[in-house]
Amino acid sequence: MNINLRHIRALQAISREGTFAAAASVLGIVPSALTEVVRQLEASIGAPLFDRAMRPPAITPLGKAFLEESEPLLEGMDRAITRLRQNAGLEQGTLFIGASPSAISELIAPVLATFLEGNPGTRCVLHDDIAESLAELVSTGRLDLAVAGRALRSPDLHQREIMRDPFGLACLAMHPIATQGAVNLADIRVDDLIGLDSSTGTQQLLMRCSEIPEAFHGGRLSAHSTIAQLCMIRAGLGMALLPRNAVALFRDPAIAFVEIADLDLWRTLYLLEPARRTVSGPARAFIALLEERVGLEN
């Protein structure tokens, strides 16, 4: 079949913009030329991709399925072209960073502010997710680097420890327990605890910790993410066991971090880097700033 990137980009533009005319404007061509590109694509596959009985023409299920399968190809090509131009010195390009949400406010954001100030020609895309997902994105080249908890070992990934913070109790600052210098695990009511999805690194650390009672893992409330936990705490629905920097995610004075005297549990953040490819110039510059930031904090 004589199908190329021009055909796929045309189909994506029509789907995204809603009409042939709007898509043609975005692509910088006249509508008749776009219509001809679509006609060529349909001729190559032997089936219509748009229902022309509708106004404007609506993409068919066949066309939608093709878009879903071809989208990763275009994303990969765009990343490859960006890195090619970076290596050729043609542009500063785009830096793709991954981070666990709790690493953003206290670590990634300050470093990113310094990086953007010193690299005005560089764009940055920040992707937040759990450690395992970020590790896969770094390994496959969809992210330049990431900062998260430890992920499964992979020959395609290098993990370097950069920061540790202790677990404590996150609760409303106005809660009586927040006025104490520290609490013990026995002071915490099980029904007050908001749990976390078992796929997260934070919850896995809690479940592996022998000091924490088994009952703490089965509270009435649970959340899919740390962000949801903090929102629920702020709404007065309970409290949670979280790393100190996670509690500072929103820098919300309404949420307090209380030390737990009889709990010695720490969360470690790692810099996830590709082990089998050279990082881009912008990525090297960001890593250098990150190392400087961690060194000052340590």
TrEMBL record:
Report the family membership: Belongs to the LysR transcriptional regulatory family.
Any Pfam family: LysR_substrate
The reply on keyword Transcription is yes
Q: Which UniProt keywords apply?
A: DNA-binding, Transcription, Transcription regulation
| Source organism of the structure | Aquamicrobium soli
Where does the HTH lysR-type domain lie? 3-60
Which named protein is this?
A: LysR family transcriptional regulator
